[in-house]
């Protein structure tokens, strides 16, 4: 499970995004200030820091530099009200991985988080797979789409997991059927499409789209 640390003295981020990030299946911790945040980073591993950033506060700039000097393996996403070319350059130069203008919508924040972890997919937690607007949480056996939780049956989960794990690669119906058989599930070829159609309907109810396409006569591909 991905672990996020929100550092926000104003508490605005906590109220706006904490609950939605948790609903996505992410583990989210809160630090009230940079000093507490640094102590938490030194005692635990985090995959991402979401930082409320003020360019006029030297503590903020120094915090980013300190993280990079410590060579901690963590992504850092800064949010700022002063989204000017100068601030963007100075923030990225000091060590931030990305910067977003405030106020930020949750959809944009989610997309930026996806982008950051696509860049370092080899460092992602194996329990999470991100494709487009959907994230499969393998440990919880749930699909999260921009904060919406899509509950899956065992068979639905195994099909989605198999396709998501090798996203971008075409999988034949025979391969999917063999995978399910290895997991102790006997299923017909027609039933595979029926299960995927059920998942598509679940996503349609929350205005989301399943990133799996059917290549007629060939199989399925995720992504």
Automatic annotation (TrEMBL):
Record domain Response regulatory: where: 3-117
UniProt GO molecular function: phosphorelay response regulator activity; transcription cis-regulatory region binding
Keyword RNA-binding: no
Cellular component, GO annotation: cytosol; protein-DNA complex
Residue stretches making up the OmpR/PhoB-type domain: 126-223
DNA-binding region(s) from the entry: 126-223
Protein name listed in UniProt: Chemotaxis protein CheY
A Pfam family hit: Trans_reg_C
Keyword Transcription regulation: yes
Top-level division of the source organism's lineage: Bacteria
Originating organism: Photobacterium ganghwense
Residue(s) carrying 4-aspartylphosphate: 52
Annotated keywords: DNA-binding, Phosphoprotein, Transcription, Transcription regulation, Two-component regulatory system
Xref: InterPro entries: CheY-like_superfamily, OmpR/PhoB-type_DNA-bd, Sig_transdc_resp-reg_C-effctor, Sig_transdc_resp-reg_receiver, WalR-like, WH-like_DNA-bd_sf
GO BP term, example: regulation of DNA-templated transcription
């Amino acid at each position: 499970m991905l672990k996020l640390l929100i550092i926000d003295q104003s508490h605005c981020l906590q109220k706006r995004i904490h609950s939605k990030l948790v609903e996505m299946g992410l583990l989210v911790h809160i630090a009230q200030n940079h000093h507490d945040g640094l102590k938490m980073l030194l005692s635990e591993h985090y995959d991402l820091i979401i930082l409320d950033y003020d360019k006029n506060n030297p503590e903020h700039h120094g915090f980013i530099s300190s993280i990079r000097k410590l060579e901690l393996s963590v992504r850092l996403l800064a949010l700022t009200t002063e989204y000017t070319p100068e601030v963007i350059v100075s923030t990225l130069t000091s060590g931030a991985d990305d910067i977003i203008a405030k106020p930020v919508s949750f959809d944009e924040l989610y997309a930026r988080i996806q982008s950051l972890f696509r860049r370092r997919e080899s460092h992602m937690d194996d329990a999470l797979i991100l494709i487009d607007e959907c994230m499969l949480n393998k440990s919880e056996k749930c699909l999260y789409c921009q904060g919406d939780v899509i509950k899956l049956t065992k068979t639905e989960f195994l099909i989605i997991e198999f396709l998501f794990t090798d996203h971008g690669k075409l999988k034949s119906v025979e391969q999917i059927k063999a995978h399910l058989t290895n997991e102790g599930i006997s299923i017909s070829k027609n039933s595979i499409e029926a299960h995927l159609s059920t998942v598509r309907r679940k996503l349609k109810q929350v205005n989301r789209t399943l990133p799996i396409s059917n290549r007629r006569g060939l199989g399925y591909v995720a992504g």
